[in-house]
Amino acid sequence: MLNTIRGKITTGIILISFTILIIINIFIWKIFESNLQNFILNDMEKIRSIVHYELERQTFDAGLVLTVYNRNNLWSIMNTANLQYDAFLSIKYAMDDYMQYAGEIIDKDSMDKIIEDSGSEFSLLYIHNDGNKYYATYSYPVYLKDKYVGTFVFQKDYFDQYSNYGTLMTRIVAIQSVLFIVMILTNYIWLKKSTNSLNTLLEGISSIGEGEFSNKLEAKSNDEVAIIIKHFNKMQEKIASQMEHLQQEKAKIEKLEKSTRNFFNYATHEMKTPITSIAGYAQLLSQGKIDEETKNRAYERIITEANRMNKMVQNMLIIARGKEIEEGHHEYINLTELLKQLTKEYEMILNREKIEVDLVNDNIIIYACEEEIRAIILNLFDNAIKYSADGKIKISLNIDKDAFIIVENKTLPLPEEIQDSLFQPFVKYNYGDQKQASSGLGLYICKELVKKNRGEISYNINGDKISFTVELPIVIDKQIGL
């Protein structure tokens, strides 16, 4: 409890209050003692004045001469004062050290000491507090006409007055103690209620430390802590959102790292194959002892593998450029005219007509990077021709809300293990002994470039036909002149 704010405040209040109470009680007791001492002094002075007055009166009547014969009259005066004030009274005469007294002495040693201390010059008052006794001894030198005649000594018990003061002080302390306990309990209850919000905040901070960000705190007051709790809830929501975003970004980075690592592993593996083939056939040609047919086949294979490696390097450069440049140069493109142009160019490369074209009449306008759209279409053409079962392909352009480019060809059955992963890098298939000069990157490049141009690409295998569909957003779907 002492480690909590409530415990520290309560302990501090107890110590401060207890210290203040002690100081107040000491101050009160000092006042009581001072009042009691003043009362004793006044009481003794009253007794002295009465006795001295009577002494002077009787002495004046005797002609201001104090003798052995008339001093006995003073005893009756002291005896009357003893009965009236319940005090011990005595006088020690200077003429012969004779002592007269009335009443019962309380402490002879105190009387002898005060006579010795006062001599014939000073009046002294000693207050004695000895266990169950509280009494005063008072001495007063008596002068008549400037002549020292003796010393009065009075003793009186004031224990009842002292006891009354003590009882009153005890009652005051008791009342203070009750009020002190009530104050501490009230303060504790108030602090407990006031620090509930702090406990709520502490629980929330602990839950965040344990990785829990969904525990929304409830503010049960309108003080500063409640305001902190409201800000804490906002901070918690923001942290939770940022943590979720960081987790998503982390997953993306991990996926990208894995994809990049796999990509370069595949690239290294794929480049080994043409290099090994080229090296093997080059070594065979260097021996010189081969027939003409084998030599021609070696030349042909070296050229094929070199083209394959060249194509792979070009594709890898396209991929690298696409990853480095977030946005290419975008412009308005007439997709219909672009497809017609690319179809003619590709047929000229093939030196024969192998593409069936089915285009809409309208000019379809898209906003994209023309170089990247060309690369997408040519890669789809190349892939379709390369893997066509009859050497022919069909291209269609349709519109709905978006533009749809469809490239279709007949294909031999594809292995089931690659049917769902044709867009992955280095996925390819050779039919029997027919070796395709393929890098396995064409469809992967298509997917990445389509994504960069805010489109989508998919494929469908239906029996002996496979079709690839590229969906691109239309800017203008009416005829315009470019």
Keywords:
Beta-Lactamase, 3 domains, 482 residues, Heat Shock Protein 90, 18% strand, five-stranded antiparallel beta sheet, alpha+beta, Helix Hairpins, disordered C terminus, single chain
Write the layout of secondary structure elements.
Blueprint: H1 5-61, H2 72-85, E1 88-93, E2 99-102, H3 108-118, E3 124-130, E4 133-144, E5 147-157, H4 159-194, H5 196-209, H6 224-287, H7 292-324, E6 331-334, H8 335-350, E7 355-359, E8 365-368, H9 370-386, E9 393-399, E10 402-410, H10 416-419, H11 442-452, E11 456-462, E12 465-473
Parallel strand pairs: 7-9
Antiparallel strand pairs: 1-2, 1-5, 3-4, 4-5, 6-8, 9-10, 10-12, 11-12
Helix pairs in contact: 1-2, 1-4, 5-6, 6-7, 7-11, 8-9, 9-11
Could you explain how this protein is built, in words?
The protein has 11 helices and 12 strands. With about 475 residues, it is an alpha+beta fold. The protein has 3 domains: about 5-180, Beta-Lactamase, CATH 3.30.450.20; about 210-325, Signal transduction histidine kinase, dimerisation/phosphotransfer (DHp) domain (Helix Hairpins), CATH 1.10.287.130; about 325-480, Heat Shock Protein 90 (2-Layer Sandwich), CATH 3.30.565.10. The strands form 3 sheets. Strands 2-1-5-4-3 form a 5-stranded antiparallel beta sheet, sandwiched between helices. A 5-stranded mixed beta sheet has the order 7-9-10-12-11. It is rod-shaped. The two termini are about 85 Å apart. Mean pLDDT is about 80; it is low at about 475-480.
